[in-house]
């Protein structure tokens, strides 16, 4: 019963992250379409500023949900070990490894780089960079047109 509840909570956290990212992607896509249709003008800088803030918020939410999912996956694995059953593969379970040295650090870094959580974080960081670039560009449009 506890095992099943933890799995359900894990799935809920993953779905929550997906829905927030879907909504964020729709907002960004709509903003980009609006900016493309109206042309990049200086008056659009508040819109891009809002997107910068929303992308940072999305990154923070993704990090928090990723830590929650990681904690739940470790808890699920511990319950599975206690019950003598095997947890379903595919969830990122990190255990305290006895390995040390450069090879262990490289292995742990590679495990982090290729997780779903890191893909979400990279997406929000990329969107932050793109939107920040557009914000700077639209602000500079005013200084170029005024001079």
Describe the structure.
The chain has one domain. It is built from 4 helices and no strands. The chain starts with a helix and ends with a helix. The mean pLDDT is 81.
Short summary of the structure?
The chain is an all-alpha fold. It has helices at 2-38, 45-83, 102-113, 116-146.
Question: What is the topological layout?
Answer:
Layout: H1 2-38, H2 45-83, H3 102-113, H4 116-146
Helix pairs in contact: 1-2, 2-4
Q: Care to count the β-strands?
A: 0
Order of helices and strands: HHHH
Q: What structural category arises from helix and sheet content?
A: mainly alpha
How far apart are the first and last residues' alpha carbons, in Å? 69 Å
Shape: elongated
* Rg measurement, Å: 21 Å
Strand percentage:
under 5%
The DSSP helix count reads 4
Percent in helix: over 70%
Provide mean pLDDT, rounded.
81
Low-confidence stretches: none
Largest sheet geometry: none
The tally of structural domains comes to 1
Keywords:
147 residues
